[in-house]
Write a structure and sequence with these properties.
single chain; seven-stranded mixed β-sheet; 25 strands; globular
Length: 536
């Protein structure tokens, strides 16, 4: 028997980066009754709040859904981990905390491709709506919003030297990556407050839960959306061991992210009709774009041993220094425990033919084999680099063996241009390490190693070293009328049905040129504004 959980104006599926914003904005003013259905749990674990906790959260089933990709040809047949946050706040509770909007050109291209209202000047107000930046307000930033943005609370001599090395090879030192043009080198802004992680749940959801018209259910797994005469009417989900249903008078809003949202659409009968019939699902709407257009930033992780300088590796394996880290954090909320995985960024071009930065470096004063594994016992830095705008496209669909598990196929480096950029990016990393500013630290390439020096061997090493940087987008993309691959219109409405929208990273037609968490929050802001505008 199905348990009736009542009727609401809006049912929001997912309390991740976008869903927390959506829940807050739709419930503001007490006008609407809002239900949020979240498959993960509460953020009642210390490592969700201490910034360095990502080392313990990623790869831990308490915090991470532990998804994996199918085997990838370009990764030499490897299947890689695909972390997603299993908690309120979603991946903002376990991610790198980097606040990065991308480039103005990213959004202007969305608008030029037939998506009115999505250009840089259109979306900037929605970035600003939630921002609480510690710096004085200016044209690019504001204070007083819900989501705290601060400067890092630790510096490393070796990272200062890498920044100087970047300028020596022609990359300008800049103060702000979020003005619309992020080419340059700077320290990343982070979503922290006084040395603690400031997830979307902490910023948007928890304050709103004081409202009587907002209800949150955790550990509630969405099964499918319900429909009546072509309109979404509610949600069926599993909660406390029972099958439950909730009705939505106005709309159902999917905010489950680029992995879960296309799978929920398919389980609801929305997707490629032939695929759905093959899965034993009766199609509601034939939308072949559902689950397609997957884009992600594939990061290559060159590791360099360094001497005569502290790194997190050396500090972590020194018991005295490790104790001092804890003391510094306890007394001042500073030091290595406040670290984002990457502190220093470099945005530059892979070659002279590029009209804007197409590479992003995350420079880290540490090295490890994979997130969730231990730090190496030698002093090292990692010069992670990714292609910001890959041409390769993959897919995420429900699995033929288990409709509740995603079949993730990123199809990395399938485009020739992406392979060219991968080879070029390692060359840029090596050039960086040869600059005079780093000479006193004697950087020695540990991975992939100096013997890897031709295109074939570089691509082989990329296949061994590369992994996701946790930025999947595009699997339920927006598009103009007549675009057969578009799942949504420019107002985030699912085509072919009423009362159903998507507002998360899956809506992006093309990936932004940088980290994707801030754009996901912006999409939640803009999506909520659209919903409220349409109600009038």
């Amino acid at each position: 028997m199905t348990r009736d959980m009542g009727e609401y104006d809006y049912v929001v599926v997912g309390a991740g980066s976008s869903g927390c914003v959506m829940a807050n904005r739709l419930s503001a003013g007490g006008r609407n009754r809002v239900l949020v259905v979240e498959a993960g749990g509460l953020d009642n674990w210390i490592w969700f709040h201490i910034p360095v906790g990502y080392l313990f959260a990623i790869g831990n089933p308490r915090a991470d859904w532990m998804f994996e990709t199918a085997t990838e040809a370009a990764l030499n047949g490897r299947s890689i981990s695909y972390p997603r946050g299993k908690v309120i706040g979603g991946s903002s509770a376990i991610n790198a905390m980097i606040y990065m909007r991308g480039q103005a050109r990213d959004y202007d291209l969305w608008r030029q491709k037939g998506l009115p209202g999505w250009g840089w000047e259109d979306v900037l107000p929605h970035f600003l709506a939630s921002e609480d930046h510690e710096a004085p307000p200016n044209e690019a930033h504001r204070s007083g919003g819900d989501w705290r943005v601060e400067r890092p609370r630790i510096r490393w001599d070796v990272l200062d030297a890498v920044r100087r090395a970047a300028t020596e090879m022609g990359v300008p030192a800049i103060d702000d990556f979020n003005s619309g043009d992020n080419e340059g080198t700077a320290y990343f802004d982070v979503n922290q407050k006084s040395g603690l992680r400031f997830s979307a749940a902490r910023a948007f959801l928890k304050p709103a839960l004081k409202r009587e018209n907002l209800r949150l259910l955790t550990k509630a797994l969405a099964r499918h959306v319900t429909f009546d005469e072509g309109r979404a009417t509610g949600l069926v989900f599993e909660y406390e061991g029972k099958t439950c249903k909730a009705a939505a008078r106005a709309e159902v809003v999917l905010c489950s992210g680029a992995v879960a949202t296309p799978c929920l659409l398919e389980r609801s009968g929305i997707g490629d009709a032939s695929r759905l019939w093959g899965m034993g699902i009766t199609p509601t709407v034939d939308l072949p774009g559902v689950g397609e257009n997957l884009q992600d930033h594939l990061q290559i992780r060159p590791v360099y041993r360094v001497s005569n300088v502290r790194t997190l590796n050396t500090d972590y394996h020194n018991l005295f220094r490790r104790g001092m880290m804890g003391l510094d954090f306890a007394l001042r909320r500073r030091g290595p425990l406040t670290m984002a995985p990457s502190q220093l960024g470099i945005f530059t071009r892979s070659g002279p033919d590029m009209d804007r930065a197409d590479l992003e470096f995350h420079i880290q004063p540490l090295s490890l084999d994979s997130w969730g594994s231990g730090l190496h016992k030698f002093g090292a830095i990692t010069a992670s680099v990714c292609n910001l705008r890959p041409d390769s496209r993959g897919s995420i669909h429900i699995s033929a063996n288990d409709a509740m598990r995603p079949d993730i196929r990123p199809n990395y480096l399938s485009a020739e241009r992406d392979r060219e950029v991968a080879v070029a990016s390692l060359g840029v990393a090596r050039k960086l390490m040869r600059q005079p500013a780093l000479a006193r630290f004697n950087p020695v390439e540990e991975k992939p190693g100096p013997s890897v020096d031709d295109e074939a061997s570089i691509l082989k090493s990329v296949g061994d070293l590369a992994t996701t940087i946790f930025h999947p987008v595009g699997t339920a993309r927006m598009g103009p009328d007549g675009d057969r691959g578009a799942v949504l219109d420019a107002r985030l409405r699912v085509r072919g049905v009423g009362g159903l929208r998507v507002a998360d990273a899956s809506v992006m037609p093309s990936i932004t040129s940088g980290n994707t968490n801030a754009p996901s929050v912006m999409i939640g802001e803009k999506g909520a504004a659209m919903i409220l505008e349409d109600v009038g």
